[in-house]
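Tokens in:
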């Protein structure tokens, strides 16, 4: 399992530890953003902000976790559409 959609599925299933282990293998900006979302869900705001910075995203301007997940999934869709 190495796709960010798989990591997202683990996150949504409440399998945070597995999702965290998997996302650490992704060095892309989207991977950094999802890593930040995992820390946000955990309540670790300091690490979440660090990963948002690595992703080039503005942590302090973010929406709710639910809002961010919608944006993240849209970004995955755009990435996948660009690949085809």
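Residues out:
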């Amino acid at each position: 399992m190495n796709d960010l959609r798989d990591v997202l599925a683990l996150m949504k299933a409440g399998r945070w530890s597995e999702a965290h282990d998997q996302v650490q293998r992704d060095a892309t900006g989207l991977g950094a953003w999802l890593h930040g979302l995992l820390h946000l869900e955990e309540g670790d705001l300091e690490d979440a902000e660090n990963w948002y910075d690595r992703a080039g995203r503005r942590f302090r301007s973010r929406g709710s976790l639910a809002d961010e997940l919608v944006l993240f999934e849209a970004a995955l869709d755009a990435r996948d559409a660009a690949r085809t």
